[in-house]
Amino acid sequence: MLMQRVVTxxxxxxxxxxxxxxxxxxxxxxxxxxxxxxxxxxWTAFMGLNARPALRVAYLALTALVxxxxxxxxxxxxxxxxxxxxxxxxxLLMPLRFRNxxxxxxxxAPVMAVAGQLMIASTLISIAALxxxxxxxxxxxxxxxxxxxxxTGAYFAGRAFGRRKLAPKISPxxxxxxxxxxxxxxxxxxxxxxxxxxxxxxxxxxxMLVALSVIAAVVSIIGxxxxxxxxxxxxxxxxxxxxxxxxxxxxxxxxxxAATPVMLLxxxxxxxx
Length: 273
Hints:
Elements: H1 2-22, H2 25-46, H3 53-71, H4 80-93, H5 95-98, H6 109-131, H7 136-161, E1 165-167, E2 171-175, H8 176-197, H9 203-234, H10 249-269
Antiparallel strand pairs: 1-2
């Protein structure tokens, strides 16, 4: 299992870096749109549609239409911040649902259907918006690696100091100490890598970026816990099997789909992009 995970990562990471580095933004959005369709297919399992292939295919078709509409709409431009605001609010309020899990029951299928579209579209258009900025390659890589830094810091801090469970009914392996370690490492990442990626020199601007990095790292944890909660509510171990040793696409990007829209919205509101 470990070897499968390592091999998969060694294959996918260079492909992702090459795509971000060399592809024009429209092509990046198009390629990631295909990934978005895989995410949509996996999401239908959370909606309880495993035995209804026609509805699953229809949901994929709807996802493709939504992604195309978003690209050719004002959301891909002046209306982006307005579109991301409710998405960010949902992510920030999601921990309220963690408190009563599993007693609060499953989320209704129509709500899940809308949530899946918002999640996929907001993630992909946020990635494209970051990539399309001046110096966007570095800005996008900063945000993507911010999530990796949060995971890495949480892993090592959790192993070294982890005692108290963060959300034992949802993800028993996560600890409060691990989460704190991840957030601290993200603060360092924001100060060092962020000041380079965004060309910041003023202490106030760097401080804002560090604060945003920590907030985005918190939301990345929320995204991870949300996917774990949804899997447990429908009895799934993994969201899919497309990535050997890793499970599904959603298993790998659950933190990114939460953190990226929130980070971009914060950057825009703070005038850092």
